[in-house]
Design a protein that fits this description.
Homodecamer; pentamer of dimers. Belongs to the PanB family. Catalyzes the reversible reaction in which hydroxymethyl group from 5,10-methylenetetrahydrofolate is transferred onto alpha-ketoisovalerate to form ketopantoate. It catalyses: (6R)-5,10-methylene-5,6,7,8-tetrahydrofolate + 3-methyl-2-oxobutanoate + H2O = 2-dehydropantoate + (6S)-5,6,7,8-tetrahydrofolate. This is 3-methyl-2-oxobutanoate hydroxymethyltransferase. This protein has a single domain, classed as TIM Barrel. The protein has an 8-stranded parallel barrel with strand order 1-2-3-4-5-6-7-8, surrounded by 7 helices. With about 260 residues, the chain is of the alpha/beta class. Helix content is about 40%, strand content about 15%. α4 (about 60-75) runs parallel beside α5. Bound molecules: 3-methyl-2-oxobutanoic acid and sodium ion.
């Protein structure tokens, strides 16, 4: 199959074909996810949790993100590869963000993801104008966990929801081609998606109405110890192999069977 590009993803959005995205941190899984039909691989800084055993994503370094991005890029051929800018590698200035993003792109990323709303608008524009596709990330943003006071749903209050609409709109205007909506009420994620013109919305604890869904690979394979979040589904249960579990996830996203109301807030 021909490689998934940003254009492919935009066409899928237009045609109402759901985008299946999973996190991925190494070459062997990248090849397996490729064969199982995953459209987008996210080299997430959640590797700080699942690979490194940290309590938060804050200690993850740019060098580590580049290493994992290169591993994934060597394993995958069809999927589009998005890599997270880790904490501290982009918040200081658009220039700092560009220098960091350039390293991720050189390692094999085709798009970079960064967390934050209004303070990131200028940075998104700076990167996009210089040829780096950007995925934004709003709602619950794990790098801000200490400020958000824990793993909590964002946008339950009307004023908070309005802020999310403004952030999404400003990030789209700045050129973000994609946005992750994490832990927001279904109605809010649906409304953010409805208000977009071209930006691709990807939900995690958000809404089936998003253009695509993402989950942490280890969560769908039930191999991350700790309590399971509401938005996670174990796709290994009942599957004959890891490949079958991942294919079941892809199928569930494509058919609209995942997420259900039980996975939403
Ligand atoms: O790092 C990550 O895994 C992420 C997703 C959960 C969106 O950012
Ligand atoms: Na992340």
């Amino acid at each position: 199959a021909s490689p998934v590009t940003l254009t492919t993803l935009q066409r899928m959005r237009e045609n109402g074909e759901k985008i299946a995205m999973l996190t991925c941190y190494d070459a062997a899984f990248a090849a397996l996810l490729d064969r199982a039909g995953v459209d987008v691989l996210l080299v997430g800084d959640s590797l700080g949790n699942v690979i490194q055993g940290h309590k938060t994503t804050l200690p993850v370094t740019l060098e580590q993100m580049c290493y994992h991005t290169a591993c994934v890029a060597r394993g995958a051929h069809r999927p589009f590869i998005v890599a997270d800018l880790p904490f501290g590698s982009y918040q200081q200035s658009p220039e700092q963000a560009f220098a960091s993003a350039a390293q991720l792109m050189a390692a094999g990323a085709q798009m970079v993801k960064l967390e934050g709303g209004m303070p990131m608008v200028d940075t998104v524009q700076f990167l996009v104008e210089r040829g780096i596709p950007v995925c934004a990330h709003i709602g619950f943003t794990p790098q801000a966990v200490n400020q958000l006071g824990g793993y909590r749903v964002q946008g339950r209050l009307e004023a908070e929801a309005e802020r999310l609409y403004l952030e999404a709109s400003a990030l789209e205007s700045a050129g973000a081609a994609m946005i992750v909506l994490e832990m927001v009420p279904r109605a809010v994620a649906k409304e953010v998606t409805r208000r977009t013109d071209e930006m691709i919305t990807i939900g995690i604890g958000a809404a089936p109405e998003c253009h695509g869904q993402v989950l942490v690979l280890y969560d769908i394979l039930d191999i991350f110890p700790g309590r399971k979040a509401r938005f996670v589904q174990n796709f290994l249960a009942g599957a004959e192999s890891i490949h079958a579990a991942v294919a079941a996830y892809v199928n569930a996203v494509k058919s609209g069977a995942f997420p259900t109301e039980a996975h939403c807030y």
